[in-house]
Amino acid sequence: MYRLFRFFRPYTLNLSWVIVFLFAQSIAELYLPTLMADVVNNGMMKGDTGYIWKYGSYMLLVALGSSFCSIVGSYLSSIVGMGFGKDVRDKVFSRVESYSLQEFDKIGTASLITRTTNDITQVQTLVVMGLRFMVYAPIMCVGGIIMAFSKDKRLTLILAVVLPVMLILIGSLAGVIVPLFKAMQVKLDKVNLVLRENLTGIRVIRAFNRLRSENERFRKANRDLTDNSIKVNKIMASIQPAMIIIMNLTSISIIWFGGHRISQNVMQVGDMMAFLQYAMQVMFSIIMVTIMFVMVPRAQASATRINEVLDVEPVICDPPRGRESGGRVGHVEFRDVTFSYPGAELPAVRNISFAAHPGEVTAIIGGTGSGKSTLINLIPRFYDVESGCVLVDGVDVRQMAQKELRAKIGFVPQTPILFSGTVAENIRYGKDDATDEEISHAAEIAQASEFIAAMKNGYESLISQGGTNLSGGQKQRLSIARALVRRPGIYILDDSFSALDFKTDARLRAALKKETTASTLIIVAQRVGTVMDADRIIVLDEGRIVGIGKHKELMGTCVVYREIVSSQLSEEEIA
């Protein structure tokens, strides 16, 4: 957890003031029992009303000062704690944003959500409470023991017996709780994972009548977390009554032995009352530390998980000095590229070589699992190649800054992703400063203007999270418009016509060809009709290129392509 202390640097001044005010509060509270003893011994026992008023006023002022310091200290510690949590969340989110897809796959989305929310909240709560207790409790504990010793050395032996017992009890409980708290966070990850899968896959679950089995799956994960939490809380619940019993026994012992010493005229009533107050302050300090010991293990487990996110070094990083493309725009070239996913036995693509140039349409087709999406994911450098190189505008993508590289590309993913907001905001996501004319033009090219005009508020119509209030074809067309509005040198469309009817597909391809005459257009498709008119068709099979050429050439030279065509078109259409 100490590795997160660097996030306290912006709050050094506030931390200093927290320590000052809590120190002042502690001194004031340590001084109050001594004033009380003086009032009892010299005022009440002697019947001196003036003395009582005088020192009673001092007690009131000290109590008010203590309350003021407590309020200010709590306020400042809250500022530090909340600011610390904000900064850690920002840092974790920024770190996650820098991950390549490989790091996302390694940690998992559900776990990243838990670490960014629940884990940081656990550490933040510890900071807020810790700034209060970790400063206040030690001063009160040490100061209370010193002041109690000054009142009566013999009675201090009671604390010498009680305090080690309390510390041993706390240590043994902490040893049991730490592993349980670590397990709790893992089980919380599991609950988040199951919940997220159920929310995103609700259509599939209902279509296959799997509601009962999914409910049972969630119930099992939830029960596992609940059982672990109950076990932890049972242990934590045993701490408070144990501490209260020890405190009460200590009070009885002090009054018992203090009464004997008063009867022997070696101790005054006020001193015994002050000693009892100091003993309670020491005991309460120990209880505060106990509460911290209960919170620390869980926060420690959470801090470890946060540090795991911060410690992951992205595989894909910008070079120290990015190379310029030298004025070339839209050129893409693969040179003997081989790529394997981490842990895979065989390469996803291997020995891939081809070039795509501006003004041309390059289509990639192949069976399921042939490596089409993997291939185009290497162009924006979502993954790094294992061997060979991918060149954009004549420069290896590994030698370019990622921001510069991706600014050259208009990417439409296989699964269209839309964000909550208006239609215009989703299209403008491709270009922040896009004008209304540019947005409407991009929508028109993407064949989206017709259904947008039919919506109640047109381009200001709201889109729900994930675009759930749109059809699959509408989402695909908006995704294409988002790529078109930025006017990049390279367009990559990953199976972005699959949800379109043949008429809309044909109109969209015709409009794209006119719009992208100065750009490189790379299309991944399953349908032969989508790629037939391409300037270059690349046929993939089991991660290898088995054919490159135009439609007529491939019909005569590529067996795999002929099989794909014959499976989709009739003999009359082929002819």
Q: What does this molecule look like?
A:
The chain is of the alpha/beta class and 575 residues long. 63% of the residues lie in helices and 10% in strands. The protein has 2 domains: 2-195 and 228-311, ABC transporter transmembrane region fold (Up-down Bundle); 332-574, Rossmann fold (3-Layer(aba) Sandwich), CATH 3.40.50.300. It has a 6-stranded mixed beta sheet with strand order 6-9-10-3-11-12. Strands 2-1-4-5 form a 4-stranded antiparallel beta sheet, with no helix packed on it. Strand 9, helix 15 (502-515) and strand 10 form a beta-alpha-beta unit. Helix 1 packs parallel to helix 4 (109-151) and helix 17 packs across helix 18 (559-568). The mean pLDDT is 85.
Strand content: 5-15%
Described by strand count, sense and barrel closure, the largest sheet is:
6 strands, mixed
Helix tally?
A: 19
Radius of gyration: 35 Å
The total domain count is 2
What is the CATH class of the largest domain?
Mainly Alpha
Describe the structure concisely for a colleague:
This protein has 575 residues and is α/β, with parallel strands linked by helices. 63% of the residues lie in helices and 10% in strands. It has helices at 12-44, 49-97, 101-107, 109-151, 156-200, 202-207, 211-263, 269-311, 372-377, 402-407, 423-428, 436-445, 449-454, 472-484, 502-515, 528-531, 551-557, 559-568, 571-574, and strands at residues 332-339, 349-356, 361-366, 387-392, 395-396, 409-412, 421-422, 462-463, 490-494, 520-524, 536-541, 544-549.
